[in-house]
Specification:
34% helix, alpha/beta, 2 domains, DNA polymerase, domain 1, two-stranded parallel sheet, ten-stranded mixed sheet, TIM Barrel, single chain
Length: 343
Amino acid sequence: MVNETKSCLIGMTTQELQQVATTLSMPKFTGRQMQEWIYGKVVDDIDCMTNISKQNREKLKLHYALGAAKPLETIVSKDGTEKYLFPTANGKFVETVYIPDRDRGTLCVSSQVGCKMNCLFCQTGKQGFQGNLTVTDILAQIHWAIREKSITNIVFMGQGEPFDNLDAVMAALERLTSETGYGWSPRRITVSTVGLKKNFQRFLDDSQCHLAISLHAPLHELRLKLMPAEKQFKAEEIVEILRNYDFTHQRRLSFEYIVFKGENDSKAHADALIKLLRGIDCRINLIRFHQIPDVPLSGADEVAMSRFRDYLTKHGLFTTIRASRGEDIFAACGLLSTERMNN
């Protein structure tokens, strides 16, 4: 479990690791050695840092924890999807999902325990908000997966709203993409958000990772019914800001759209979506709705989803239907919750 009292090394920059070294009266270059072991070789124990003297490793362990964590529980779906339960520094728990697909392996990462956004269709929102993850908490999910699984892509689409914990998320992204961190290309990382005005442009300006907007409705009143965040930051405002950025090259912009029967799946809704997104280089990901208790919504059937996709595509919006994975283990979109563990 992530240590609750000692500061953790995972998540520190090279400069911070060098400061750790000098504070403990070690040579400054020991910070560089720690950085290479943590991010380059992805070790899970301070004792693995064998080019640091045993005496200095003992001194490190006395004052610091590495911060690596292993899942406390693993559940495997019939389709191969895996869901992991990770501990956090504040004694809570989060879920992380691994989705294998031929030559791809996608890790779906959490950024908060629960969520404040309270979207009508999301089980995580029903859990309520129980705390932000630290940089170490976020990276611990990834650190373990890099060691144990074949990971090609990372998506911040797990529990929580990334833009509501953006300081920690941006720090994690910096460690992920830095040459002195894990060295990942930002083109392999996608961050999903409902859209929070206070941090929206900061992410656009300071990160080159892909962006996914949880849209789910093209009209204000309908989106407000589904997503309270619409009250503070309308979809129209979000789109107007996005028009100022270039998504015609390697950076990708996508819109997530759960298709609800009789709610957002008509030709009129498709036309409103086409109008809203006209002129923006983006893709639409249509998502099947997975039923959750006490929510008066139902998912559109396959015929309706295909018809909606084909209409959007015909009118110039690149649209796909996302494959549903891990529903039988409650690992699919909108189903993550650790309420049973955190109460």
